[in-house]
């Protein structure tokens, strides 16, 4: 009887221990997460991008070839709905992934006494990513209709102050700008002198088709002890090829939908260029 009782207790203990071990393993697997850094290095051709610096631009259109110059006071855009695709082909949506990438001077917010500070932000930290091997990334430029139509809904970095309207006449209190490039355009010979350049992307219909997908040069590993960098160059010079008539089309906004679409497509297909990945131990 004692032997049977001892056998029974041993068996029960084994079952309990086995159950606890499985629960612990399951919890560890569920809670195992890591980070990655997404970097967008702003460039002008082979030069680093800087505010308030004049850059040469050779324009060729049906009328001839012309020497222009541009300088910039603002470059901002939303990166949203970031998805990492693992080695098995599963898409992992990064939670609350709405990020404002920008290089801007101090801005006075229109219709208020608020001031938006001068900011340079090119790196995004992606958090709460399940550990594993990842082979590619997807992300969108802009904000989908759910949030674009309702400023009372917030997630990630979305918010009224980040609406990117300020003094530019956009109906920013009802929708976000997806991309904002501001500066000046000059004829190199100084005649005529200059015009303000103000190019914007926005509206729900332009969010559709605003996703970019890139396959990495090699799989990256994300774990609690390892992190990876995903590097892109963003060439502002490529954006200037959106139209062959930048002097005439110095403003792109809601009233020029075709030019907005062209600017979006140029940004996604030409300006954002994948440069490679890096992995390192924390």
UniProtKB/TrEMBL annotation:
Start and end residues of each Copper-binding protein MbnP-like domain: 34-249
Pfam assignment, any one: MbnP
InterPro entries named among the record's database cross-references: MbnP-like_dom
Source organism, top-level taxon: Bacteria
Name this polypeptide is given: Copper-binding protein MbnP-like domain-containing protein
Organism: Sphingobacterium zeae
């Amino acid at each position: 009887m004692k032997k049977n009782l001892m056998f029974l207790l041993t068996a029960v203990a084994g079952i309990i221990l086995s159950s606890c071990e499985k629960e612990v393993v399951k919890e560890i697997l569920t809670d195992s997460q890591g980070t990655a850094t997404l970097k967008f290095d702003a460039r002008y051709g082979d030069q680093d991008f800087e505010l308030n610096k004049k850059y040469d631009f050779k324009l060729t259109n049906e009328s001839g070839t012309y020497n222009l110059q541009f300088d910039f006071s603002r470059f901002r855009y939303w990166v949203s709905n970031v998805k990492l695709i693992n080695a098995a082909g599963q898409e992992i949506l990064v939670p609350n992934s709405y990020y404002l990438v920008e290089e801007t001077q101090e801005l006075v917010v229109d219709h208020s006494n608020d001031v938006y500070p001068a900011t340079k932000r090119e790196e995004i930290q992606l958090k709460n990513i399940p550990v594993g091997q990842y082979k590619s990334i997807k992300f969108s430029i802009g904000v989908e209709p759910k949030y674009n139509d309702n400023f009372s809904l917030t997630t990630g970095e979305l918010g009224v102050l980040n609406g990117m309207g300020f003094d530019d006449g956009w109906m920013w209190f009802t929708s976000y700008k997806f991309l904002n490039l501001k500066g000046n355009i000059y004829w190199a010979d100084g005649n005529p002198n200059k015009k303000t350049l103000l190019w914007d992307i926005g509206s729900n219909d332009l969010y559709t088709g605003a996703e970019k997908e890139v396959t990495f040069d090699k799989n990256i590993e994300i774990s609690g002890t390892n992190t990876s960098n995903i590097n892109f160059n963003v060439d502002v010079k490529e954006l200037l090829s959106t139209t062959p008539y930048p002097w005439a089309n110095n403003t792109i906004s809601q009233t020029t939908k075709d030019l907005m679409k062209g600017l979006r497509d140029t940004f996604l297909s030409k300006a954002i260029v994948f440069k490679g990945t890096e992995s390192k131990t924390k």
